[in-house]
Amino acid sequence: MIEWQDVYKVVVAMVPLYVALMLGYGSIKWWKIFTPEQCDAVNRLVCYFTLPLFTFEFAAHVDPFKMNYKFIGADAISKVIIVAVLAFWAKCSSKGSYCWSITSFSLSTLTNSLVVGIPLLKAMYGQIAIDLVVQSSVVQAIIWLTGLLFVLEFRRSWSTGTDDVVVEDLPPPGKDLEGNNNVNGNGNGVGVVVSSGTKPSFWYLMRGVWMKLALNPNSYACIVGLVWAFLSNRFHFEMPSIMEGSILIMSRAGTGTAMFSMGLFMAMQEKVIACGVSLTVFGMVLRFIAGPAAMAIGAIAVGLHDDVLRIAIIQAALPQSITSFIYAKEYGLHADVLSTAVIFGMMVSLPVLIAYYAILEFLH
C-alpha cells in the first residue's frame, strides 16, 4: 500500500527534473544566455552523447538471464496493436497522417520508466516491479526507440531526397555545346538546371538511412550495453572501474541535460503550452488511456496475472519518455506536442498512477 513517504520519494525524484527544466527556460526567457543556434547545439549534445551513454549504462547492468519473457511479449503485443491501429488510420482515414502516426506512437507507448516508474512502482509492488520496469526500459531502448529513430531518419531522407541536380551551360546563339552552328542558343551562355523532381528509389533511401543510423550512437548504445550484460552475467566479471567511470561522467547528465534542452525549447515558443489545449488533451488521452488499454490486452493475451499483470498496466501509464522529445526536436517532428506531453505528463502522472493502482487493487 502506498504511504505518504512513498509519495514523497516520487516527488523527490521528479523535482530535480523541473529544476533543470526551469534553468533551461530561464537561460533563454530571462537571462538571454543562449542563441537559437546554441540551443540546437545543446540538443545535439544531449542526442548524441549524454543519452546514448545513459542508455548504455543502465542496459549494461541488467541481467538478461532473469528477464520475464511473458512480460516482454505482452509489451510487444501492445505496441503492435498501436502500430496496426495507427497504420490503418493513416491509410484509410481522410484525417490520417503518417507523420501524426509517428508522433501518436510515441505518445501512447514510450514511457519515462526509470525516473518516475522505479520509485513509484517500488512503493506499490516492491523489488519485482523494479526488475520489470528496468526490463521494459531496456527493450524500449533496443527495439522501439531504435525503430522510432529509423522511421524518423527515413522520413527525413524521403522528404529531402531528390535525384541529382544537373547544370548544363547553354552556348551563345549560333553555337551548340560542341561549337557547331546552332540557331537555338539562349544568347548568354548561362547554365540552366535540369530540378527531374522525382524521389530517389526505396533502396537508395534505405542505404542512406542505414548509413546514418550506423553513425548515430543512439541506434546501438543499448544493444552494446545488453551484449556487455550477457557476457558479464554469463562469465561473472565486472566492468573495469576506469571504463565505468568514463561512462558515468557523461551518462549521469543524461536526464538532466534532456530536461534542460526541453526548457530551452519551451522558452523559444510563444506559449508554455506550445501545442495548444486540444493537442495537449489528445496527448494525455493517448498517454494515460490508449497505452495502458493496449497493454492490458497484450498482458491478458500472454496470460499475465496477479501483481505482474497490474505492474504491466501501470508501467504503461507512466509519463512520456524524455528521449522521444529529444528525437522529435532533432528531426523536426511535433516537438511542441512531445515537450508538452513530457511536462504535463509528469505533473498529472502521480494522481493518475495512484488511481490506476487503487482501481486494479479493487478489481483484484
TrEMBL record:
The keyword Membrane applies. GO terms for biological process: auxin polar transport; auxin-activated signaling pathway. It is a multi-pass membrane protein. The chain crosses the membrane at residues 7-28, 71-90, 97-120, 132-152, 209-231, 246-267, 279-302, 340-359. It is found in: Membrane. Keywords: Auxin signaling pathway, Membrane, Transmembrane, Transmembrane helix, Transport. Its main location: membrane. One of its GO terms (cellular component) is plasma membrane. One of its GO terms (molecular function) is auxin efflux transmembrane transporter activity. The keyword Transport applies. Belongs to the auxin efflux carrier (TC 2.A.69.1) family. PANTHER family: AUXIN EFFLUX CARRIER COMPONENT 1B-RELATED, AUXIN EFFLUX CARRIER COMPONENT 5. May act as a component of the auxin efflux carrier. This is Auxin efflux carrier component.
